[in-house]
Amino acid sequence: MNASPPDVILLHGLWMRGFAMAMLHRRLREEGFRVHQFEYMSVAAPPEQAIERLRRRIRALAPGPVHIVGHSLGGILALLACREMDEPGGRIVCLGSPLNGSGAARGLTHHWGGDVLLGRSRELLAHGLDHWDGPREVGMIAGRQQVGLGSLIGDVGLEHDGSVGVEETRLPGLADHCILETSHTGMLVSADVARQAAFFLREGHFDTPLV
């Protein structure tokens, strides 16, 4: 009897909907995963609402491992949802998530209408997390193709993906971190990103030297 394919939940980022993850969904399915979309309101609703819904979704897919791949804000929400969840097991891959705070988000709060654009996720994006000490292994894929307006809004450092600085994606406690030639939104359609994400979900590290 064949084992069921491992489950993966996809979380989109700020100002997006689930369909933005369609290409990544297809590629991870081709890698042998059973893929699930998770939609949430990134601006109008408080992050705590999405976090609690995500926990319920994870538990509903138990008892087998339930992996998560989160883009940008979605990666932060994934970590917060799983920080104190011992069961079920699984790994997390973050794609360009500003885990230690977003300079672009902080810069946007100083522009007229910035608070409205960031909505209820403003504080979470601006300040991020201190470290990761949850039970899951977490891998980060950062980009350095500088296509985007983030660097014009706030300080994202010299190396960035157009929206998030590479240094903003580093966080104590990550299992692995890799940098690819892709932009922030380009991660969602990148074959290299999908391949590296699938590799980490299976092995607990990326198919690249530790960066």
In short:
The protein is α/β, with parallel strands linked by helices and 211 residues long. The chain has eight helices and six strands. Helix 2 (47-61) packs across helix 3.
* CATH topology title: Rossmann fold
If classified by CATH, what would the architecture be?
3-Layer(aba) Sandwich
Radius of gyration: 16 Å
Instruction: Write out the strand line-up for the largest beta sheet, numbering strands in chain order.
Output: 2-1-3-4-5-6
Determine the oligomeric state from the structure. Answer: single chain
**Which secondary-structure class do the elements indicate?**
alpha/beta
**What's the name of the CATH homologous superfamily?**
Alpha/Beta hydrolase fold, catalytic domain
Assign an overall shape. Answer: globular
Tell me how many strands there are: 6
Percent in helix:
25-40%
Query: Biggest β-sheet: count, sense, barrel?
Result: 6 strands, parallel
Q: How far apart are the termini?
A: 40 Å
Look at the structure and give the mean pLDDT: 88
**CATH class category label:** Alpha Beta
Pfam families: Abhydrolase_6
Protein name: Alpha/beta fold hydrolase
GO molecular function: hydrolase activity
Keywords: Hydrolase
Overview of this structure, please?
The chain has 211 residues and is of the alpha/beta class. The protein has a single domain, classed as 3-Layer(aba) Sandwich (Rossmann fold). 32% of the residues lie in helices and 15% in strands. It contains 8 helices and 6 strands. Strands 2-1-3-4-5-6 form a 6-stranded parallel beta sheet, sandwiched between helices. The chain is globular. The mean pLDDT is 88.
